[in-house]
Design a protein that fits this description.
The complex is a heterodimer of chains A (about 160) and B (about 600). Chain A is of the alpha+beta class and about 160 residues long. Chain A contains seven helices and four strands, in the order ααααβααβββα. Chain A has two domains: about 60 residues; about 80 residues, Glutaredoxin (3-Layer(aba) Sandwich), CATH 3.40.30.10. Chain A is about 40% helix and about 10% strand. In chain B, about 40% of the residues lie in helices and about 15% in strands. In chain B, the strands form five sheets. In chain B, strands 9-10-8-7-11 form a five-stranded mixed β-sheet. In chain B, strands 13-12-16-14-15 form a five-stranded mixed β-sheet, sandwiched between helices. The chains are: A alpha+beta (about 160), B alpha/beta (about 600). Chains A and B meet through helix 2, helix 4, helix 5 and helix 6 of A and helix 1, strand 12, strand 16 and helix 17 of B. The complex binds flavin mononucleotide, iron/sulfur cluster (2 copies) and FE2/S2 (inorganic) cluster (2 copies).
Chain lengths: ~160, ~600
């Protein structure tokens, strides 16, 4: 089956489109697979641009609105571009009790971004997540793939410094 | 294989990994190889040991020596002393904070001594990525027994006798649920495992999956046999990558061993399991929403009846059970329902796993018999409140639950008893709060969560929780008005009554329970514009009381904004122009001089 030509997009390279096509092909015809497809596509591109959602919809033969509905319902999916580094701060109960709020305030002030947002220089995206399952280390912050436990407000900026 | 004289059970759970357990393992492996010990001493990476507070932890078997707070730097010393010279390293032993006594053996540590390991029977003992180790500890015996020797009716009967109730929150009797699904007509049925673990501050399901994934698979096989299902799904949070990986390995191995797939153990029974990753929506933990989500739709609850036992996934009869519920099943089949029912209280049988966290010394995973008092849980096992602070309340059941104040600490862990004081057993999150926690702020926190996670289908839940949140924010910001408390109560009751699913029906509970026990704190915020716990920034004055200030200078040194003026022998003073209201100084002042 031939693949329709893909629109140009600054954040999606031809190699990415290839991967995306492969993901879609693998799941085509599998009932209920749209969430898995969106997840894998987001892993490829980093977020879900409109053009990508359109490609998923036509690839899986689903109404565009259904795919949008799913993408906007689940917090895993991001419709906006992300920064170079992703900070996840835990807003679970244990971390809240242990003072994550003060940590977030510091990050917000220093990098000019709010949870859900990206800093103007695209250096960081900040995401507030609910319980990373490491409550023993509360308050917890994850930067890209590094987990930091027992983060203190007065140390957090220093911890973030190496991430450029 | 025979040459192995020592096994090092190193915790590879999420908590310990975040504390560099991986790097410790690599360093240790390298050192053992360098010293020619790698043949006789094997490192086994286990799931969460439970005592995350002192991680990374490692148990040396067969001696039973328990090491804590391990670092890569200590490796050469450890290998030299313990594994070459046979002298266990004392400075890595656990030290009991109260008595300062060092305790070398795991079972003598108070944290473990009061526990009872049923669901967590294999944690820290087996390598969760090796099916043989599970089998060596009687694993899959129960599945074999259920498939070969028991009729489905007998299985259900045994589960009913055990008195097991669902550990996912609602506490519905598992045997009865299975019986409904068994009796539902239909050729295609499903068994689902709920590993969504949405309660923020709970991590027991994750740890069970990481430490003992086969126990859950075995429980599902038995459930499948009981209701005659041939396909199962595990719905697991995408935030749990290690649990997912271990489940994938476990499923693959079980298939290789003929424990999943066609003609299991030659009995002619077919059953297979697939993993389904959630995508970050709390409401998807609700059963009907979870099934919609597996179908690839927006995970919104639907009215019941029809119940999932009649019309569940893809409209087929379905049983959904929680991870911990399923991990109990092999025990019941192996030892009998009556044996299981011998532990616990009248209405709550067996054990319960709790995730103990917040302001408590021994943060971690604990398993106790039903009926254990909260005091024992928090003070004997949990080791009390850190830094000599005072206990204020404990939140049970997460955002659907409530807080329990000091006067009820002696109530037993039991579905009904906990409900009587306005909380719920829930999934088992136990969050301890010390006296520096503001209860209005906590109510606001939970409402923020509920409001954010409401799927929006029901107007009372969607709009009502938003309104509750607005009022709570207003109170925390010092704009509370006299009528607010009555409005909070009234709205809460409306939301509870008019919502479709458990999220809305229980979401206002944290508000009601804090109002019930800490009303005066709300009143201080509203009428005196004062936050007694000093947590609500808008109500703080950022002033230092010169009478109370001991002139120690701790605040001065900590202030990131250079807003504090202090000289030796002079009380400190805050320059409000420069102050960024970060509250660091409140934390640092040991004399409560700043308000
Ligand atoms: C909003 C909401 C979230 C829920 N989240 C979970 C969850 O994360 N894990 C879980 O096992 N049950 C959760 N439940 C309960 C499930 O609906 C269901 O009762 C349970 O999984 C049944 O299993 P059990 O009988 O073994 O407890 C949730 C319920 C509601 C209303
Ligand atoms: S109660 Fe709330 S979460 Fe539940 S279905 Fe209604 S709107 Fe959705
Ligand atoms: S609140 Fe922060 S900025 Fe203000 S005085 Fe205290 S430490 Fe300094
Ligand atoms: S609450 Fe933050 S890791 Fe659990
Ligand atoms: S993660 Fe290691 S003890 Fe819990």
């Amino acid at each position: 089956m031939s693949v329709p030509p893909h629109p140009e997009h600054p954040d999606i390279t031809p190699e990415m489109w290839e991967k995306i096509d492969a993901v879609i092909a693998r799941h085509r015809g599998v009932a209920g697979s749209v969430i898995a497809v969106l997840r894998e596509c987001q892993q490829v591109v980093g977020y879900l641009p409109v053009e990508l959602i359109d490609a998923v919809a036509s690839g899986l033969n689903l109404p565009r609105s259904d795919v949008f509905g799913v993408a906007s319902f689940y917090s895993l999916f991001s419709l906006k571009p992300k920064g170079r580094n992703l900070i996840k701060v835990c807003m679970g109960t244990a971390c809240y009790v242990k003072g994550i709020k003060e940590v977030i305030t510091r990050i917000e002030a220093r990098f000019q971004l709010a949870p859900g947002g990206t800093s103007p220089d695209r250096r960081f995206s900040l995401e507030a997540v609910r319980c990373l399952g490491a409550c023993g280390l509360a308050p917890v912050m994850v930067v890209n793939n590094d987990t930091f436990g027992d983060v203190k407000a007065d140390r957090v900026i220093e911890v973030l410094e190496p991430y450029r | 294989m025979d040459k192995v004289r020592t096994q090092l059970m190193l915790c590879g759970g999420t908590g310990c990994r975040a504390n560099r357990s991986e790097m410790f393992r690599e360093t240790l492996q390298g050192e053992l190889e360098k010293r020619g010990l790698a043949e006789e001493i094997k490192i086994i990476e286990t799931g969460c040991n439970g005592f995350c507070a002192v991680g990374p932890v490692m148990l040396v078997q067969p001696e039973g020596i328990f090491y804590q707070k391990l670092t890569p730097e200590i490796v050469p010393h450890l290998v030299e002393e313990h594994f070459l010279k046979g002298r266990p390293v004392k400075k890595l032993f656990y030290v009991e904070p109260a008595s300062k006594e060092t305790i070398p053996k795991m079972e003598s540590i108070p944290f473990f001594a009061h526990q009872m390991f049923w669901v967590m029977r294999n944690k820290g003992v087996i390598d969760p990525e090796v099916i043989d180790e599970y089998i060596a500890r009687d694993g899959y015996f129960a599945a074999a027994k259920a498939l070969r020797e028991m009729t489905p009716e007998r299985i259900i009967e045994e589960v009913k006798i055990s008195g097991l109730r669902g550990r996912g929150g609602a506490g519905f009797p598992t045997g009865i649920k299975w019986e409904f699904a068994r009796k539902s007509p239909g050729a295609v049925k499903y068994v689902l495992c709920n590993a969504d673990e949405g309660d923020p501050g709970a991590f027991m399901d994750r740890s069970v999956l990481e430490a003992d994934p086969h126990a859950v698979l075995e429980g599902m096989i038995i459930a499948a046999r009981a209701i005659d299902a041939h396909q199962g799904y595990i719905y697991v949070r995408t935030e749990y990558p290690l649990a997912i990986r271990r489940l994938e390995i476990a499923i693959r191995q079980a298939r290789e061993y003929g424990l999943l797939g066609k003609d299991i153990l030659g009995t002619g029974f077919d059953f297979d399991i697939d993993i389904y990753q959630g995508a970050g929506a709390f409401v998807c933990g609700e059963e009907t929403a979870l099934m919609r989500s597996i179908e690839g739709k927006r995970g919104m609850p639907r009215p019941r009846p029809p119940f999932p036992a009649v019309k569940g996934l893809w409209e087929k009869p379905t049983v959904l059970n929680n991870v911990e519920t399923l991990a109990n099943i092999p025990l019941i089949i192996n030892h009998g329902g009556r044996w299981f029912a011998s532990v616990g209280t009248e209405g709550s049988k067996g054990t319960k796993v709790f995730a103990l966290s917040g302001d408590v010394n021994n943060i971690g995973l604990v398993e106790v018999p039903m009926g254990t008092s909260l005091r024992r849980l928090i003070f004997d096992i949990g080791g009390g409140i850190p830094r000599k602070k005072k206990f204020k309340a404990v939140q049970l059941g997460g955002p659907s639950g409530g807080c329990v104040p000091e006067q009820y600490l002696d109530i037993p862990v039991d579905y009904e008893e906990i409900a009587k004081v306005g909380a719920i057993m829930g999934s088992g999150g136990v969050i301890v709060m010390d006296h520096e926690t503001c209860m209005v702020d906590m109510a606001r926190f939970f409402m923020d969560f509920v409001q954010d996670e409401s799927c929006g289908k029901c107007t009372p839940c969607r709009e009502g929780t938003r309104r509750l949140l607005e009022i709570l924010e207003k109170i925390c910001e010092g704009r509370g008005e006299p009528g607010d408390l009555a409005t909070l109560e009234e709205l809460s009751h409306i939301i509870k009554e008019a919502s479709l699913c458990g999220l809305g029906q229980t979401g206002p509970n944290p508000v009601l329970s804090t109002l019930r026990y800490f009303r005066s704190e709300y009143e201080a915020h509203i009428f005196e514009k004062r936050c007694p716990a000093k947590r609500c920034v808008a109500l703080l004055r950022f002033e230092i009381d010169p009478e109370v200030c001991t002139q120690c200078g701790a605040c001065f040194k900590a202030c990131p904004a250079g807003a504090i003026a202090w000289k030796k022998k002079q009380p400190a003073r805050i320059d409000k122009e420069k102050c960024i209201r970060c509250m660091t100084c409140f934390e640092k002042c040991r004399f409560d001089a700043i308000s």
